[in-house]
Amino acid sequence: MTQKDLNESVAYLQEKGFLKPEIGIVLGTGLGKLAGEIQNPVTAYYNHIPFFPLATVEFHSGKLIYGEIEGRKVVVMQGRFHLYEGYGLTGVTYPVRVMHELGIKRLLISNAGGAINLQFKKGEIMLIEDHINLQGGSPLAFKNVAEFGERFVDMSEPYDVSMRKMLEDIAAKNNIVLRKGVYASVAGPQLETKAEYRYLKIIGADAVGMSTVPEVIVANHLKLPVVAVSVLTDECDPDNLAPVNVADIIATAARAEPNMILLFKRLIKQLNL
């Protein structure tokens, strides 16, 4: 990745009309309907954007959408990238850098995750307070990283405290169950064994998934305030573990999605940029 690559990606999007977005949003597996809330949308397909990776997961549509939500200019990733698709972590996080270059001041992230904490139930939403990176690498581990920011990035508080508090308040006012916890990010695409679920619980994870942490690391590298939520699509009980049902995971995400959309829309409306 070079600055020239970023400049070409940004120039293409600006020519399409992606002008001065304030907020970037990354939508997770089965969570694409927020895009339907965008007013005056302008769409750019990933395969048309210079140097952009291509989404290869069937639940991810692969387009960047610019427009307005609650009167704010947003750019929304409908379809994200994962390590398990064969991309390096620099490629997975390239869109975050592009959105930052376009001008976003805040980043909102969603994902579908499994509940390790068995007090949490599928269909609930977890506000991520901290994370554990189990992906085996860093999106900052490349030779010329210092051209884009400090090499050694502080991660003592990776998720913006003020936006977290706002989401908690919004959830309380709208009777939405909003759990709080630690998200463990693994490489995937295989799901975990019983022993791995036990391990994740021992090390302090409340939920597990295959995304989000690389984007959050890069957001912190860019000093871009970020907040993230997990829609809990299954319960990972090693003592009662059933074979994975992907259709059920997607259906659970769809049922929980209206609450996630409400949380994000109200947050967007309240943000003081």
TrEMBL record:
CDD domains: PNP-EcPNPII_like (cd09009). GO terms for molecular function: purine-nucleoside phosphorylase activity. This is Purine nucleoside phosphorylase. The purine nucleoside phosphorylases catalyze the phosphorolytic breakdown of the N-glycosidic bond in the beta-(deoxy)ribonucleoside molecules, with the formation of the corresponding free purine bases and pentose-1-phosphate. GO terms for cellular component: cytoplasm. Pathway: Purine metabolism; purine nucleoside salvage. It is an enzyme of class 2 (transferase). It comes from Sinomicrobium weinanense. InterPro entries: Nucleoside_phosphorylase_d, Nucleoside_phosphorylase_sf, Purine_phosphorylase. Its EC number is 2.4.2.1. Pfam families: PNP_UDP_1 (PF01048). GO terms for biological process: nucleoside metabolic process. The keyword Glycosyltransferase applies. It comes from the Bacteria. Keywords: Glycosyltransferase, Transferase. Transmembrane segments: none annotated. Residues 22-269 form the Nucleoside phosphorylase domain. Belongs to the PNP/MTAP phosphorylase family. Gene3D superfamilies: Nucleoside phosphorylase domain.
